[in-house]
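User: I'm writing a tutorial on reading structure tokens. Could you give me a worked example: one chain, its sequence, then its tokens, then a sentence or two explaining what the tokens reveal?
Assistant: Sure. Here is the example chain.
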Amino acid sequence: MKIPEVTKIPLWLHLIKIANDPLNHLDAIAKKYGDIFSIKFGSTPIVFVSNPQALKQIFTNTKEIKSPGELNEEMILITGEKGLLQLDGLRHKHRRKLIMPAFHGVKMQAQGKLICNLTEKVMSQYLVGKSFITYPTIEDITLQVSMEVVLGLREGERYQKLKQLLPDILKCMRSPIMQITFAFPFLQRDLGRWSPWGYLMHLRDEIFQILYAEVQERRKQADCDRIDTLSELIFARDETGEPITNEEIRDLLLSPLFAAQDASAVAVTWLLYWVHRLPKVCEQLLKELASLGDSPDPMSIVQLPYLSAVCNEALRIYPTQLFTFTRRVELSTELMGYELSPGTLLMGCIYLTHQREDLYPQPKQFQPERFLEREYSPYEFLPFGGGARSCIGAALAVFEMKLILATIISRYQLALVKKQPEQPKFEGLMCYPASGVKMHICAKTPQSSAETSASLCV
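And here are its predicted structure tokens:
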């Protein structure tokens, strides 16, 4: 087997650099090794790829290159044994098809006003002249949206508990001590709620119990008029025509629930950072919004071309995921001149693909216009991964980005508190803004005054 050149940096140093300075580290590797290279994890090399033609081959050659659920085994902790990430083949395709309608079409349209109203409700708690941390604020909005879209929950005891538990478990998993625990399996011992692993298990069990109880109750009170994912799964049938079990429904809900909350919150936070770091972008966005008149329909907002370009550029320059999910070579295959034998692991590097100068001239510059001048293929622009393992909440994340941003900048004049550039921090699968992006509320504008807001941006 001839694999791409293995980087000379030891694994422990790779992990430290990825955790503390991910983008500069990846830039340095790409400069030295090009758009395909290998990193050894123990005795197993993983081949990293950022070439669009190679990514197309990886995503579409499903006979020789597969994405088995067993490669995502570490995600069972929060997605369950029967979640989407653990399923394979036709079963995975079937279950994904059952979940997707809640994130597309008419059902998404029904959520448009909900997103705008929730955004205004959350933002209204802050006073002019005060500052706030963007990420937890946006997470509050996307969490409420995800519980509505995925679970159909708006109120009640379970709603309130999940509203606390879902952010808590993500915060716990991102903590430094838990990152160390994940790296060293012998530390994964449940010594009670006051031990790190024990506390994580407690949060996980609480979430699983609440979701299972909700599934049980909703099955007894099945309502075919509801449009949330949970309701659809209750009426769904598996490949044999039998109803899906309560346990499987619970596990199937977990991936979209976390994706719709966390990936969306990260994406919107980066978006708000860039828009307010570059006042001319904010000004042009507000002029485009003003062209729709007072109280525009959410579906008119999401179709605005410059708004779409700004969202795409935010996802390009700091994609929420730096890497795709891992694939595995099942039959000997050639990739970019290398003969890869069965068992070789492959991972697409989304960030490096988005930094290619042949695709994106001056890639470090935030230039939304590039998305107005050119249409990129799904192998050139892939912020949510690609192929069968692409993020199931991608459509909702982009939908939320547009409506949350439009609502906030139309009603509030904000300013970044820090003048220094925001630094990315890679934890788990996500690339978070390290400080959470602190912003100051300078003024609040009338709801019908997008043009006034535009003048405040400059």
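What the tokens reveal: Confidence is low (pLDDT under 50) at residues 454-458. Residues 409 and 453 are 7 Å apart (CA to CA).
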